[in-house]
Structures are given as structure tokens and as C-alpha cells.
Amino acid sequence: MTVLYLVRHGETVDNANRIMQGQTQGELNDKGRSQAREVAEEMAGTHIDAFVSSDLKRAYDTCVAIAGPHGLGVSTTSLLRERDWGGFTGKYIPDLKDSAWPEDVETVEALMERARKFLDFVRGNYAGQVVLAVGHGIVNKAIQAVYYGKDMKDILPMCNAEVRKLVL
Fold first, then answer.
1. What is the distance between the alpha carbons of residues 29 and 32, in angstroms, rounded to a whole number?
2. 82 in catalytic set
3. pLDDT lower than 70: segments of the chain
4. Residue 136 appears among annotated catalytic residues
5. Would you say 5 and 48 are in contact if contact means Cβ atoms under 8 Å apart?
6. Which of 82, 69, 77, 78 shows the shortest CA–CA distance to 126?
7. Out of 27, 38, 70, 82, which one is annotated catalytic?
8. pLDDT of 82-113, one tens digit each?
């Protein structure tokens, strides 16, 4: 049995300012760094074999903080990157409500395929192990949609630094 602890990165400067980050690196703010430390404390007594993160800074920094008490390094993968929001990237989210979607936004189908590949990656590389993976709100939602066989709209959003357990 492979166990996957799926985590959303801590709060960032752009989260707090309601800016669409997409695949930009992002920077944890003080609250986000505190959230990462809290998850590290909560997970310190849990056996974890491997730590995997999105290759974007906000997720990687969160994962490094959580991995610290375990004395393990962090591997990165672009499979865990946030959805590419194309022309929406860097925009103030409330202003996007009635906007036409740019053609360069990553499709839901492409996002779901990345989620499938990520689950296959974990199953293939960490069979029988416990893995903690730090991703982002929308990609984590897609991973759970694939896992549960549901539509993304049926998966509850994850808060910053929230942990969900999947048994693969």
C-alpha cells in the first residue's frame, strides 16, 4: 500500500493579494512560512519515506520546511505545477469574474492528464512507501478528482497548508 499525503503550499504574497499566480514561482509570506512550520510539527511524528514537491518556489519552500524534522531532502516534479493560467496570470482575481478566458489557459483535460501522470509517478517510484507531496490548489484538486473518479467541481478546495491523505 502506498500512502500519499497531499499538501497545498502555505499562503503566499499573491494569495493574500488575490493575484492569479499560475506557474509563477511565488513567495511564501509570514503566514505561509508559519503554516509550513505548523504542518512540519504536525507531521513530525508520522513516518514518511519521501518528500516530493512542485518545482515552483512556493511549494518547494513549504515542502522543505515540512521535510526538515525528518532529515530528508525534497525531489521536485513539474507534474505538480499549478494550472497554467496563461493570460490570466498576474491578474487580480476579482477582476476576472466576467472576463473571456484566454486561449492559452491550460485545458482541464491537460491538467487531468498531468494529475493521472503524477499518481502513476508516485505508484511507480514509491510503491509501498509513504510520500508527502506539496502542490497547489487546482492541481491538487485535479489529483483528487482522478483518484476519486469525480469531476473537479465535486472536490472541495484545499486551504493553504492543508493535508489530505490518499491511499493508492
1. 5
2. yes
3. none
4. no
5. yes
6. 77
7. 82
8. 999 999 999 999 999 999 999 999 999 999 99
